[in-house]
C-alpha cells in the first residue's frame, strides 16, 4: 500500500536530504518538495518493471476480454476458457496462464484518445498527447526515461537503470536528453522506431562477450552523455552549483556499464540451466523474458522489450501486432503466437514467484491500444483483420507487490468501450510512478526551463494498491 499523506516526525537523515536538494534540483531541473522526498524515502528501493510491449496493439477481444455472445463478426473464432480464479476467463490458446490467474491482474477498462501507432505509444507511455500524429521520437519523456532520470544517482555505477532492446516508435527521452535513453546491447535500428512493421525482431539477449565496448558503443556513449541542450547553455549554472561535471559523470558511468562483468553476465543466458531455458522456450520470446528476469535480478530498474514475432509469409508480412487484414490473417497469426506467448509469460511469472521477486518486480504485457470490435477483410485475399481501437484495451499485470488475482473494469457486450471503472491510461502510469516513489504531479523542466508535470492527470488504481 502506498504511504499515507502524514508521515509523522522527520528524522535527521531526511532533514539532511532536504537541505541537500537545492544542489540536486539545480543540476537536475526537478522541483523539490517535502512530499516528494517523503515519497521517495518510503518507496521500495528495489522495485523494478519489465514491460513486454506488444507494439502495434494486440486485440483485447482475442486475448483477455473475449465476448463469446457477441455476433460472429465481432467476437471472432476463439472461445474463452476458465482460469483458476472464479469468474475470470481468457483465450483458449493461453491454457498455462489460465492455471495461474491468481498471480496476475487484467485491466479491461483503460482507454485513451490516440489511434495512430506512434501517437498512441507516445500517449500511453508518456501520459501526454503529442502535437504530431506520426512522430518518430517523443515530445515528452516516456516512462522508463523518467524513471532513469529519478533513480540515476541511486543506481550502482556499473548497472544501467533502464535497458531496452530498441527504441520505441514515438517514444524516447525528449527534453531530458540522451543521457536518460535506454541502454541497448545492439546498435539502435532506426527502422524499428519508424512504424515499418517488416523489420526483423531485435533480441535483448546475448552472450557474455556480446556486451562490450566497441567503436559503435563509444559513439552511443557520447550520445547518451548529453543532457538537455548543449553544454554551453548550462555550464555556468553547473559551475555556480559547485557540482561535478555531468558530462564526465555520465560518460564514466556508461564506460563502467559496458565494461562491467556483472552487466555482461546478466545478458548471458548460458549461465542459466538447460532446464530453465527449456521451460521459457527456445524462441525469441522465451529467451527475451528470461533475459529480462536476469536483468532485474542484477539490479536494472526498468526493462523494456518489444514482443515482435516473425510470422510465416503464408500468414502475414508483419512482425508486430498491427493486425490489419492487409498485414496478416489475425486468427492464424494468433494461433501461432499465443501458445508461444503462453509458454514464455507463464514461465516468467513462475520464476518471479518462486524467487520471491513478485513483491518487487512488476511484469506488464500490453500495446498502445486495442483492436476494433469488428472484423475487417480489406486484403484482396479476404483474410480477416482488426484495425486500431484506443477506446478499449486490456493490460496484463503480474507481481510488483500489487494485488493480483482479479479483473479490474469491464467493457460493454461488444468490447467497444468501458462500462465499469473506466480509466484513462494515465492511471496505470500513476500507479507505477508511485510504486517507484516518484510523485507524478511533480515537475521536470524542458530545454527552455519551462516546468512540465510528469503526468498532467491520473490517479493510482486503488484496486491494485488497497
Summed up:
The protein is α/β, with parallel strands linked by helices and 466 residues long.
Radius of gyration: 22 Å
Mean pLDDT: 85
Strand content: 5-15%
* First-residue to last-residue Cα separation: 6 Å
Number of helices: 16
Q: How would you characterize the overall build of this protein?
A:
The chain is of the alpha/beta class. The protein has one domain: Alkaline Phosphatase, subunit A (3-Layer(aba) Sandwich), CATH 3.40.720. Helices cover 33% and strands 13% of the residues. The chain contains 16 helices and 16 strands. Strands 1, 4, 5, 6, 7, 10, 11 and 14 form an eight-stranded mixed beta sheet that branches. Strand 2 and strand 3 form a beta hairpin. Helix 8 packs antiparallel against helix 10 and helix 13 runs parallel beside helix 14. The longest helix is centred in the last third of the chain and has 25 residues. It starts with 11 loop residues before the first helix and ends with a helix. The N terminus is likely disordered.
